[in-house]
Amino acid sequence: MRQEKTLTHEFVEFIPDALKEGTLYVSMEYATVVHKCCCGCGKEVVTPLSPTDWKLIFDGKTISLDPSIGNWSFACQSHYWITNDRARWAAHWSEAKIDVGRAHSRWAKDRYFAIADAVDDLPTQAQKPEGVERVKAERRFWGKLKKKAADIRRRFDPTGPTHVRGPM
What we know:
Elements: E1 5-6, E2 8-11, E3 23-27, E4 32-36, E5 44-48, E6 55-58, E7 63-70, E8 79-83, E9 86-89, H1 95-120, H2 131-156
Parallel strand pairs: 2-3
Antiparallel strand pairs: 1-9, 3-4, 4-5, 6-7, 7-8, 8-9
């Protein structure tokens, strides 16, 4: 395993054209962190910040990114964690494990955006009917949402059905 590498960080609006080795460039404006690959190959690593990509932790002094950085499309295929301005090397992944990781990422994105779309369909206060009709409409809506969530869970469950019920 390689030795940990100490990094620095800079908060910027725009990512510079020329990146310095060992510097994490953080653009909050564009929700992106960019750096040169920590293995030394010189490739540019872009980590978008979002609920389905990387999360940035700034403790007032250092930067951490979660999850790990897996540069699977680079020749180096480097894999490391950035924690408290330090790159800690992670285990090498096989092609099969990389494929599983990519499939899981796609599944997580699909699931997140399917749920987000369902929440966007929630009625606003101005759309809600009054009295008894409002209660009926809300029950219908929550029933539909519950059914849609169950359908989404079934469709995106990576393990498939956990059991099959026979005839009673």
